[in-house]
Write a structure and sequence with these properties.
The protein contains 14 helices and 13 strands. The chain is globular, with a radius of gyration of 24 Å. The termini are far apart. It has helices at 8-20, 40-49, 68-79, 92-106, 120-132, 148-156, 174-183, 206-217, 256-259, 274-288, 293-305, 307-330, 356-366, 393-407; strands at 55-56, 115-118, 138-143, 159-164, 189-194, 221-226, 250-255, 268-271, 335-336, 343-347, 369-370, 372-373, 384-388. The longest helix has 24 residues, at 307-330. The structure holds pyridoxal-5'-phosphate.
Length: 409
């Protein structure tokens, strides 16, 4: 029997083939993950943070600490060893507290059994969209928008259509919605509404919501209404909901994050029409099983006793909004006047010949003030950037002083 020794070049080829077939786990993921961008807000924030002395008006979270009476409720819960698995849909006490809160402050009537407690509004959005976006369905959402909606659609692999609202003062009109729904010719759709809006601060009033509800009722569309800023509203308080006008079609998503300064607690919920709630709850159960019991106990206290603390925070936001908006207008910036949330959307000055990313970079370098480029909220180029005024009034005064020098340079 003869054996043959591979030649030098054969050995090299074999080694190359072996190298080619090395299994790389990072390549063996869902193909769409390769095209999902990581958050522009976070990456720009990291870039800006590297500059010494940077004043950041970038992040979307209250600068207040969680009120003491809520933290004390969590401590009591821990002391009572409420540290075990909770019911999947949330503790009965919290679900009832949310149901009462929605009726008391928001004129929304969902029985406790139709309220599912989630890990923040983020998980509510991803669980609900995962449940609703079946193959062949389409996600519709108005832009500029919080990036999560489109990312969930990309992850699931369903089509999404962004309806640009810039030409209608950042208000989604019934005509624009109707045109988008007609363009998909009877396919099932999920419409995401976000009022008050991140990033514009624009809040839809009752007449505008009623107009949209009338369109919704004529089409095969379910609405996910992201109302995380509903309490932070300056004209109609709290902001109205499309669920008042299309209750059988609307899933309300909200969380304790912004209303009670509880972003780190990861506690939210969705409230759904009765025949949908149990189906949607299954996805929540698959994703996270349940929220943590002691955070639910703390949130129960917040929803039962937190009205006054919300009102106090909103008055502070209102004063900051007035100061920042008036100052920016005084500096010659063209802004979208916010009626809710804690953001103002600022137009990049016409004389600046670059993207909003370029402008935000220049402002960060020269003024040492950071805002989020509008590209974070639209698919494509933007002429806007977002400032958050969830910042102390000292920081806002200093930011305005720096921007004045920057504008006059
Ligand atoms: C419009 C909008 N929806 C949802 C969320 C997520 O909120 P949560 O902290 O409750 O997950 C945010 C957070 O910034 C947001 O701006």
């Amino acid at each position: 029997m003869s054996t043959s020794t591979p030649s030098h070049s054969q050995a090299a080829q074999t080694a190359a083939a072996a190298a080619d077939s090395i299994f790389r786990p990072e390549d063996a993921v869902l193909p769409q993950l390769h095209t999902l961008a990581t958050s522009i807000i976070r990456s720009f924030d990291t870039e800006a943070s590297a500059i010494e002395g940077m004043l950041k008006l970038t992040l979307g979270e209250p600068d207040f600490a969680t009120p003491d009476f809520i933290k004390e409720a969590a401590l009591r819960s821990l002391a009572n060893n409420r540290t075990h698995y909770a019911p999947n849909a949330g503790t009965p006490g919290l679900r009832q507290a949310i149901s009462d809160y929605l009726a008391r402050r928001r004129s929304l009537h969902f029985p406790a059994e139709d309220i599912i407690v989630t890990e923040g509004a983020s998980e509510a959005i991803s669980s609900v969209l995962t449940a609703l976006l079946h193959p062949g369905a389409v996600l519709l959402y108005a832009t500029p928008a919080f990036g999560l909606y489109a990312n969930v659609a990309k992850l699931i692999g369903v089509e999404s259509i962004a309806i640009d609202t810039e030409s209608t003062d950042f208000i989604l009109t019934p005509d624009a919605l109707d045109a988008a729904l007609r363009s998909i010719r009877g396919r099932d759709a999920v419409l995401v509404l976000n009022s008050p809006n991140n990033p514009t601060g624009v809040t839809l009033n009752e007449a505008q919501l009623q107009g949209l509800a009338e369109v919704v009722e004529r089409h095969a569309v379910t609405v996910l209404s992201d109302e995380v800023y509903a309490e932070i509203s300056y004209d109609e308080r709290p902001a109205p909901s499309i669920a008042q006008f299309a209750p059988d079609r609307t899933i309300v998503v909200d969380s304790a994050s912004k209303s009670y300064a509880m972003t780190g607690w990861r506690l939210g919920f969705f409230a759904a029409p009765h025949n949908l709630a149990a189906q949607l709850a299954k996805v929540h159960q698959i994703h996270v099983s349940t929220a943590a019991m002691f955070t639910m106990d703390a949130a129960q206290t917040a929803y039962e006793q937190g009205d006054a603390s919300i009102d106090l925070m909103v008055e502070t936001y209102r004063n900051r909004r007035d100061y920042l908006v008036d100052s920016l207008v005084g500096l010659g910036y063209d802004i979208v006047r916010p009626t809710g949330a804690f953001y103002t959307y600022v137009h990049v000055p016409d004389e600046f010949d670059g993207s909003s990313f370029d402008y935000a970079r220049l402002m960060a370098r020269e003024a040492k003030v950071a805002g989020v480029p509008g590209e974070a909220f639209v698919d494509g180029p933007s002429r806007y950037f977002r400032f958050s005024y969830a910042a102390s009034s000292d920081d806002l005064h200093e930011a305005v002083a720096r921007l004045r020098r920057f504008r006059n340079r």
